[in-house]
Amino acid sequence: MILLHPLMLAGVTHMQEQIASSLHCLQADNTEDENNLLLFPRGIIQPISLSRQYTKEKRLLAEVWKSLIPAAEDIGSDSLLRMFTAFPGSKTYFSHLDISPRSPHMLSHGRKIVLAIAEGAQDISQLAVNLAPLQILHAYQLRIDPTNFKLLTHCLLVALACHLGDDFTPEAHAAIDKYLSAFAAVLAEKYR
After folding, report:
1. What is the pLDDT of residue 141?
2. Cα 111–123–127 angle (5° rounding)?
């Protein structure tokens, strides 16, 4: 049996009261709010229609990546350049290529990266199947450190924010970040 000091007990009770009052202020009329949460009569917050939110994100991702295909070289090479500048250790895998800004190698590889990501965004449910050849290539032939996938996706997110400007809404940011994390995780699966 654990005994609590009366002041600690009062603090816990006070926190519970604050949480309960904020929940009732959040939604007293049991309607949807902008975060897709519903307050039930007992004060329990539960997500509603997760599949609807997932479908919305899938549609948003497909639209965003489809619109980025014409600028694939610029976005991809910018992402690679950011990665090489911020994380110089990642250059070791490209020592045989010209990795100067706007070089043909950077533009070509950047385009390949963005097109692969855009292709995966068209059908997220088949991401592992679509990336199987790239998994094998990067894990067994090129032997790329899987940490570099996370570094590149971070740099790609920054490049997308610069490229999209006002179209890079918080919703788009969240959806793209989740998708790029999943993309990097799927690429790294063969390393286990």
Report:
1. 81
2. 75
Distance CA 58, CA 52 (A): 10
pLDDT tens per residue, range 95-104: 888 888 899 9
User: Do residue 38 and residue 54 come from a single domain?
Assistant: no
Give the domain extent around 108.
Answer: 50-191
Distances (CA, A) of 42 to 22, 23, 73: 13, 10, 53
pTM, to two decimals: 0.69
CATH assignment of the domain containing 127: 1.10.490.10
Q: Which amino acid is at 173?
A: H
Look-up of token digits 């039930």:
40
76 and 169 inside one domain: yes
Residues 17 and 105 in one domain: no
Residue pLDDT, tens place only, 11-64: 444 444 544 444 343 344 444 444 444 433 444 444 445 567 778 888 999 999
* Ramachandran quadrant class, 73 (left: phi over 0; alpha: psi -120 to 50; beta: rest): alpha
Residue reference for tokens 């991401």:
127
Question: Is the Cα torsion angle 165, 169, 174, 178 positive or negative in sign?
Answer: negative
CA angle 57, 139, 122 (to 5 degrees): 20
- Same domain, yes or no, for 64 and 130? yes
For residue 1, is it within any domain? no
